[in-house]
Every structure is written in structure tokens, then in C-alpha cells.
Amino acid sequence: MTTPPHPAPEAVRAPDALQARRAFLADRLAAVRARIAEAARAAGRDHTGITLITVTKTRPAEDVRLLAALGVRDMGENQDQQASVKAAACADLSPALSWHFVGRLQTNKAASVARYADMVHSVDRVCLVTALGRAADRAERELRCLVQVSLDDDPGRGGAHPDEVSRIADLLAGSPLLTVAGVMAVAPPREPADRAFARLREVRERLLGDHPDATVMSAGMSGDLEAAITAGATHVRVGSAVLGARTPAPPSP
Ligand SMILES: *Cc1c(COP(=O)(O)O)cnc(C)c1O
Q1: 15-243 has CATH 3.20.20.10 classification
Q2: Average pLDDT over residues 124-128
Q3: pLDDT digit string (tens) for 62-115?
Q4: pLDDT in tens, 153-174
Q5: Which of 252, 186, 251 is nearest to 217 (CA)?
Q6: Positive or negative, the Cα torsion across 151, 152, 155, 160?
Q7: For a pocket test of ligand 1, which of 55, 77, 120, 222 has the largest count of ligand atoms closer than 8 A to its C-beta?
Q8: Distance from the CA of 158 to the center of ligand 1, in angstroms?
Q9: Which residue, 49, 21, 177, 10, is CA-closest to 110?
Q10: Ligand 1 center from residue 240 Cα (angstroms)
Q11: Ligand 1: does its nearest atom lie under 6 Å from the Cβ of 238?
């Protein structure tokens, strides 16, 4: 038994509700893009070097299509069950969407994720590299991977210890269809985000020594994207600031 996604990804709105939703998303998206541009300006960075990933978890495929119509190409999801359904429901879009898997990933979901994901942000252990490598071979698709770094000692959020990053990165680089594209982190709750993201930046600097193409730094969510951009984030993962507050998800299966 599996719990159905929440809400059903195929939920369809009436035309006037769809119009209202489009206007809502357009407003919020403009506000988030303005925040990104302002944070980049304040940091002396070019905002075109920062990719906005809208995290559409718990939201229907219809929201993904509305965001695509508003010019978003990068979508983030944290559960294979939801992501695979939405990727299939949006496969006809042109230009094609890029799907980012940002959640904790079990090895038995690697085969599915390799069929639709373009970037996996949450590679944090050796067995996952092995599983993703096999899955990418079978799917005959390239998978860009980020090493997720734990910025504290809480095992609940996932992420490799900073000292483990280079070993995981070397393994990724040695797998034919996987590439090590950079690092990712979620800021710990009990520390100012700017301090935590500064440590992530150091981890990336060290990684770049051995893997000069691993330039991605995926950091920053609705509440802390400015701190992440100041620290050098190239990809921000924004959910609620664009899509509205999420209703609590049902318990995981
Ligand atoms: C949900 C989620 C986000 C987006 O969070 P918001 O606070 O809604 O912007 C970003 N990254 C990960 C890993 C997530 O699970």
C-alpha cells in the first residue's frame, strides 16, 4: 500500500480558478525574482548566474504548467512518487523542463529518478552513488549530481559530513553517466544561515580543487535565499514563497 500524493498531482482546476492561480503565481514569482536580483546586486554578482528552481512538491502538475508558462524551466521535487507523475504529465512541454530531485533518496528509488531527473541534489552516501550509477546506465541518461553536505550533526536532514564530500565526489566522477556538478545544503535551524552557507562555500572551494567543473552551489530556500546568494549560491530552491504555504503532508508511507 502506498499513500497517494497530496494532493493528487493530476488535480484540475475550473477555468476561473486556474486564472486566479496564474495571477497568484505570476505575482509571487515576480517578487522572488526581484529578491534574487536585489540580493545579487548587493553581493556584486550577476543575477543571471543564479538559477531559480521552483519546488513544486505537494502541488499539482497544473501548477508546474502554469510556472512553465511564466518562464520557469527548473522544477524541484522531493518525493519520487510525486515527481515521476508530474514529470510524465509535463513531458510534452517545449522547451523541456529540467527536474531537480532535492529530497532524501532511497536507493530503491534511484532507477525511477534516473528516468526523469536532470540533477540529483541529495547524493550523500556511497551506496547511493552506486545505485544512481547503475540506474543512469540502465536509463541511458546522464545525471548531474550534487553532494549534499550536512552543515550540522543532525542525521535527520541528510547530507554527508564535510570530510566525506571528496570521497563521494570522486566516486561520482568515476561513474560513466554521473557527473559531480557541485554541492547542496539545507541551512540548519539553530544557526544564522549566513554562517552555515559560508561553510558550504568553503566545502565547494575545496571540491573545486579536484573537480574544477563542480561549480554548482545549491543553497537558499524561501526564508534564506538572500544569505545563500551572498555566500555564492548558483541555484536557489524556492517553494512556498512562489507557490504559497504548503498544507502539511500526510505521513510518509
Ligand atoms: C521544500 C524544500 C525546499 C523549498 O522550501 P521553501 O521553504 O518552501 O522555499 C527547498 N529545498 C528542499 C530540500 C526542500 O525539501
Answers
A1: yes
A2: 98
A3: 999 999 999 999 999 999 999 999 999 999 999 999 999 999 999 999 999 999
A4: 777 778 999 999 999 999 999 9
A5: 186
A6: positive
A7: 55
A8: 14
A9: 177
A10: 8
A11: yes
What is the average pLDDT across 4-20?
A: 73
8 φ, ψ (degrees, to nearest 5): -55, 130
pTM for the full predicted model: 0.94
Whose grid coordinates read 535551524? 189
Residue pair 113/80 in contact (Cβ under 8 Å)? The answer is yes
Q: Which atom of ligand 1 is nearest to the CA of 243?
A: 8
Show me where the domains of the chain are located.
Answer: 15-243
pLDDT at 164: 97
The reported pLDDT for the residue numbered 253 is 46
Residue with CA closest to ligand 1 atom 4: 239
CA of 219 to the centre of ligand 1 (A): 10
**CB of 78 shorter than 6 A to ligand 1:** yes
Mean pLDDT of 123-152: 98
